[in-house]
Design a protein that fits this description.
The chain is globular and about 75 Å long. It is an all-alpha fold. Helix 4 packs across helix 11, helix 8 packs antiparallel against helix 9 and helix 10 packs antiparallel against helix 11.
Length: 267
């Protein structure tokens, strides 16, 4: 290669194939957005009218009907019970599934597949769908909401627990195995001390999420504050809707603060 040819060479960040792949990605994204907008069927007239409709809605919400605060707090307490009991049930079911899913704890490919199938199934079905299923089985009420929260949370907590177990240091485990410790002792003395902080952090995080999810389960009859919200919406009592929404917002903020404090001071 001559000196002139070397000077004519230009540095490029990406190869030709990489540039073509990037352009193809951009074009695909634009086409997908355009097709999605066509299927969503956005009506421009409604968009122009949206600010005035929002203003009218907030006008109906004010002043709030503070007489509805008592039933709202009662329903909110039920929501907290649903989220808490659902999280506890989920942990009880997720721990054995997580142990089965961890390949270093359960070196059995068949059991690993079964456990991963359970975890994927739990995460794939939305909490509202779980609630509809349990409402059909047990009838409307907090029991259906509790079970919906529990079965929805198995996949989340079990998967993160299995990942924490697989990342555990193998040195202490090998020492226990070499000493002839039984399997229960290996799990309780070898794995548990290493994954305990992650386990409680996962539990608190999932409980925080479950409070948010359980707030809407009442819309399908699964108990909690969603029932109060659904009743106010159906009757078009917007001043009561404002009270319910304010209560949900307040409990979510307080829960976030509580969980953050516990993580910083305890875990």
């Amino acid at each position: 290669m001559t000196v002139a040819e070397r000077l004519e060479r230009k540095w490029r960040r990406f190869t030709l194939g990489q540039r073509l792949a990037r352009y193809a990605f951009y074009v695909t994204t634009v086409v997908a957005v355009i097709v999605s907008l066509r299927y969503v069927n956005v009506i421009p007239e409604f968009l122009y009218d949206a600010p005035s409709q929002v203003g009218d809605l907030f006008g109906r919400m004010w002043p709030m009907d503070w007489k509805y605060l008592g039933p709202t707090i009662t329903a909110l307490i039920e929501t907290l019970h649903i989220a808490t009991l659902g999280t506890i049930l989920a942990l009880l079911m997720a721990v054995p599934v997580g142990l089965m899913a961890a390949r270093n704890v359960t070196p059995n490919y068949g059991l690993n597949l079964i456990a991963k199938f359970i975890l994927v199934t739990s995460r794939s079905v939305n909490s509202l769908v779980w609630a509809l299923l349990f409402v059909a089985v047990f009838g409307p009420g907090p029991l259906a909401g509790t079970l919906a929260i529990a079965f929805r949370s198995i996949g989340f907590t079990g998967k993160l627990l299995a990942e924490a177990l697989e990342e555990a240091n193998a040195g202490s485990i090998e020492a226990l195995v070499a000493a002839g410790a039984p399997r229960a002792s290996i799990i309780s003395k070898g794995y548990w001390p290493q994954v305990e902080p992650a386990f409680w952090s996962i539990s608190l995080f999932r409980w925080d999420i479950n409070i948010r999810e359980s707030a809407v389960l009442g819309l399908v009859g699964a108990g909690g504050i969603g029932v109060a919200l659904d009743t106010a919406l159906n009757l078009l009592y917007w001043d009561q809707v404002a009270v319910v929404l304010l209560a949900i917002f307040a409990v979510v903020i307080l829960t976030e603060i509580f969980v953050t404090i516990i993580r910083n001071r305890v875990l």
